[in-house]
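Query form — protein Lipoprotein

QUESTION: What is the three-dimensional structure of this chain?
INPUT:
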Amino acid sequence: MKKLISLLAATGLVATTTSSVSACNKSETLAEATIAADKTSVEVTIESAKIKKDEEVTIFKKDLEWLKGSSKQHEEGKAKVTISVLQNKKAVRAKDETYILDVTIPAPKTSKEQYEKIGTVKVTVVKVATPATPTPAPAAPATTPATPAKNSSKK
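ANSWER: The structure tokens for Lipoprotein are given below.
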């Protein structure tokens, strides 16, 4: 019985530790946006105390080169960023999909990293409807010239 209690206590301790660690890794969602089917971009406003006046703010996701955005001109604590779908990637928009993109600013000069992540943006990209292919009209049956019907009845 003591072994069972010890095992349950150890499992509970590990589970508690794991959930608190994953809670610390959550990134703050700074904005949400939707790119409509008839659009290739959307503008979002990012607010963070870490944003400095006229410092570049970049939105991207590693290994997702066709959806990204950046802005260089903005005010202290707030940036307007245009997120764009690259034109040659419209084929990717076969269904509605939501992506979580990183929001970054230049890292401090003392850092070895190039960028510092300050949060995320949730972007929904709406599918682009493919134009309907016209269905060909059914072929008209071949017609032959009408011939007068022979009257077989004699009067």
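ADDITIONAL NOTE: Residues 13-25 have pLDDT under 50 and may be disordered.
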